[in-house]
Amino acid sequence: MIRHTLSFRFADEIDQATRESVLAELRTFPDRYPAMRGFVLGENISTRDRTFTHTMAVDFDTHDDLLAYLGSESHESFVHTRWRPVIGRQAITSFEYAERPSLAAGRTSPVSTRPHGPYGMEYARIEVPDMQATIDFLEYHVGLQLEQRTDEYAYLRADIEHHAIELIHAPERTDGWTTAVGYSVESEEVLEQLHKSVLDAGLEVLELQERQQALCENGFAVKDPNGLIIELFTEFQEYAEPPHIEIRPLNLVHPFIATAKYEETQDFYQNVLRFIPSDYVVGSTTFFRGEDRHHHSLAVQNNKEHFTAHLCFAMKSLDHVMRMRARALYKGAPIASDIVNHSASTSIAFYLHDPRFGPRFELCDRHRVFTPEEHETHRARRMPADPRNIDVWRPASDDWGRF
Questions:
Q1: How far apart are CA 340 and CA 50, in angstroms?
Q2: Within a 13 Å sphere around the CA of 175, how many CA atoms are in the beta-carbon half?
Q3: What are the two backbone dihedrals, phi and then psi, of residue 350, each rounded to the nearest 5 degrees?
Q4: How, if at all, do strands 276-281 and 381-383 pair?
Q5: Distances (CA, A) of 8 to 11, 21, 80, 186
Q6: Can you list the alpha helix ranges (DSSP code H) found in 168-278?
Q7: What is the C-alpha to C-alpha distance for residues 253 and 234, in angstroms, rounded to an integer?
Q8: Are 315 and 324 in contact (CB under 8 A)?
Q9: What confidence tens digit (pLDDT) does each residue in 157-193 have?
Q10: Whether the Cβ atoms of residue 368 and residue 345 lie closer than 8 Å to each other
Q11: How far is the first Cα of the chain from the last one, in angstroms, to the nearest whole number?
Q12: pLDDT tens digits, 327-369
């Protein structure tokens, strides 16, 4: 094991509110960096040495895990924008140790024996009436990079994965329409189990789109009760490096699917595709997670009609979310829902929407990631239909506006 410690003192001129804000952000690190183990943060109570006022300690399984955390873009952004401006003094140590068996006993992670579901969302396929205008929007307002374009289709990516958005040229449409979403699966064994689950449910197994077949090792597709195509596959192709764009998403987190067949759709995603419920807004929304442990890799909303309401992209930092919001305000791009502090996932986000380009695009920071232990043991909460259970910053139970 590698133990990493950080002792520090805030600069004398830093006010208490700023100090508490930085400490609160540090406490979110275990959710943001799943490789962390045994995170603790506390005030210095020593009567012998008051050089530092606080210490943070955390363990990593390997030195590579520590280096990956220290070198991550989100950590670098935090250090430059939040940490260095407020810290007066600090000391960092890292050392290797062997955990004593007597201490480790009884602290093993739960062993999962349940069938696994899809790993995480990789892309959405959207038919759009104006290909160039949609590309311009996604490049400037979402931060995606165009990788390939023909008269028929275009691929845009967020990080190293081959693409996050596939656009299909559909001049006959007035508004954009999401026709398919793609999820990676962690192994051929899990893929085969999901294939069998679909057949056992009496559903038709479809072939992957022909272009997608060339971008993965193996896979199949199935339609959900609303007709949305779900593509499942292993070994999605990746680039060696992410795009050299500073303000861009790290990944595509989830679709938010509205449906008039709420219970049937819940049953399909939970009992056929084996997504795990994370939380419910009773009678309104179910949040499902995949094996990547994001609070939700999929959300289903009870509605009068079916449509993909939004796609969520995770940005590198809250600063980047706000910079994208500033771009939208500067260009007059329609903000469908402004800053929201999500009750369930703990993310802070805003939503852009121009119907020509498809669903709303949510740009968020700090979407909750469960620890491996939480992933196996978390009990889904059943929250009443109250706007404060969607956005914790809503002041009252009747404040339903601005969503």
A1: 39
A2: 11
A3: -135, 165
A4: parallel
A5: 10, 15, 16, 40
A6: 188-200, 210-213, 262-267
A7: 18
A8: yes
A9: 999 999 999 999 999 999 999 999 999 999 999 999 9
A10: yes
A11: 46
A12: 999 999 999 999 999 988 999 999 999 999 999 999 999 899 9
